[in-house]
Design brief:
- The protein is an alpha/beta fold.
- Helices cover 31% and strands 10% of the residues.
- A five-stranded parallel sheet has the order 8-2-1-10-9.
- The radius of gyration is 22 Å and the shape is globular.
């Protein structure tokens, strides 16, 4: 597969099939670290039929060694090859020398978020992994479980059958899913939950209440303070197998991520190998490459994003929600304050963007970009990240074409997705967002927040990250 430099032959599994990864694929290479991707993909050639794709809303199945054509495509994949790959990580070996093997120390957040979207799950995943690294413990990773942990292989979502859980290695690469840390880092490599439960049948359990009881909702307690208290707690324990009590509150909850309290953790997170050595999985990267014609043309592509929150906005309004914390870096030009008296369930224009507001914002951003850069960074393409229906997208396209004559307008509805990749498409959108010359996101969205986090890590100009 030429898309992955240095990709060796795939590892054979016990059943004679091919693993979707090799061991080194879990390590973020220099080529695919976030700081390099923008320069690479900004010059990809785009064919002239991008406009045609705007009208094509059918999912196409990509043929690849990792997404073998299913006998019945209506049955979702179970990602067996990825699960098998995770079972065979080399650190799953008790004979290894310290800090791994029999003398390893582990941290397993058994109370991690489930029955939630990938944006929320990813936020907590990063901070839990950061805590494990800070205490020199092997992080125990689990599947992405969008439904109940005890659900069967398949669940129903919006009337469709979907996999109940997806192995993390199908979505991300890097230290979180078991790659080595940099030379000289004494932290043991991450292990799978399955391995942990074999070698740690009698874990030491901790209820998050012991530290977080009076800190969870206190607006004056920054996330860094909570983090430091947990580092102190774990460092004081000689127990090899430390597990958060299942059913207890998460250490890092939505109340932290949904406020500026989380920004206090950014200096540590942004310097950590958990984030700096993070990469998307080969499946995500390959799907991105297969759809490159949608995302931009050399030399200066532009991508604007709208995430349709129709089903979620009433819930946010009911709670008087603020923007996600990582959407509120001080340097960003767009600000938001929760309106006085908010919390009654009223959906505001700031939450649910109507077509006219989107068009107005795009026009505003174009004018400001011209003031900032003159004609040096002309914006000529739009990519719309959305789950809105086809009729709304057509209406939006018509409105946007009234702003200027774009080279192309395309959307995430047009992604060519395979049998497996259709279930990790949000991560493809996130990769597009972190590469975009200009990004306009939904401040209430955790998916937007994760994109913004990577853009800040890449040191992209704050004026090029905007919000509706």
């Amino acid at each position: 597969m030429p898309f992955f430099k240095g990709h060796r032959s795939l590892l054979p599994s016990a059943g004679g099939q091919s693993h979707p990864l090799k061991i080194s694929d879990t390590r973020a290479s220099a080529r695919w670290r976030p700081t390099r991707c923008f320069r690479l993909f900004a010059v990809l050639f785009v064919s002239s039929w991008a406009f045609i794709l705007f009208y094509n809303h059918q999912v196409e199945h990509l043929s690849s060694p990792n997404e073998e054509n299913p006998i019945d495509p209506s049955i979702p994949p179970l990602f067996e090859a990825y699960h098998e790959f995770e079972r065979h990580l080399p650190q799953h070996d008790l004979s290894l020398p310290f800090p791994e093997g029999r003398d390893a120390k582990f941290f397993w957040a058994a109370n991690h978020v489930t029955a939630s979207g990938w944006g929320n799950v990813m936020q907590e995943l990063l901070t839990n992994a950061l805590l494990a690294h800070a205490t020199n413990r092997a992080f125990v990773f689990d599947n992405f479980t969008a439904f109940r942990d005890d659900a069967g292989d398949f669940s129903e979502f919006n009337g469709k059958l979907v996999p109940s859980r997806i192995p993390l290695s199908a979505i991300i690469s890097g230290p979180i899913v078991g790659s080595s840390f940099d030379l000289g880092d004494p932290t043991p490599r991450a292990v799978s939950r399955e391995y942990y439960e074999k070698v740690c049948p009698n874990s030491t359990l901790i209820d998050s209440w012991t530290i977080n009881e009076h800190l969870r909702h206190d607006p004056d307690v920054p996330a860094s303070q909570i983090f430091d208290l947990w580092v102190e707690k774990l460092d004081s324990m000689n127990d090899s197998c430390v597990e958060m009590q299942r059913g207890s509150f998460q250490i890092f909850e939505i109340w932290l991520f949904g406020s500026t309290r989380i920004l206090s953790l950014w200096p540590q997170l942004s310097k950590s190998p958990i984030l700096r050595n993070f990469s998307w999985s080969p499946l995500v990267l390959k799907t991105y490459a297969a759809n490159a014609q949608l995302f931009g043309a050399a030399p200066k592509p532009s991508r604007f994003f709208h995430r349709d929150f129709t089903d979620h906005c009433t819930h946010l309004a009911k709670w008087g929600s603020d923007w996600n914390g990582f959407n509120k870096f001080a340097d960003f030009p767009d600000k938001f304050q929760v309106p006085a008296g908010a919390g009654g369930g009223e959906v505001t224009e700031k939450n649910l963007q109507v077509t006219e507001k989107i068009v107005e914002k795009v026009r505003e951003v174009l004018a400001e970009q011209k003031m900032l850069y003159g004609g040096k960074k002309e914006l000529n393409r739009i990519y719309v990240m959305t789950n809105g229906d086809v009729a709304w997208l057509m209406q939006l396209k018509e409105g946007l074409m009234g702003v200027k004559r774009w080279d192309a307008i395309s959307s995430s509805r047009e992604l060519r997705l395979g049998w497996e990749s259709k279930h990790i498409a949000q991560s493809v959108d996130m990769l597009v967002g972190q590469q975009a010359q200009v990004f306009i996101g939904n401040g209430f969205s955790s998916l937007t927040s994760n994109i913004v986090m990577f853009r800040m890590l890449n040191e992209l100009p704050p004026d090029d990250t905007r919000f509706w």
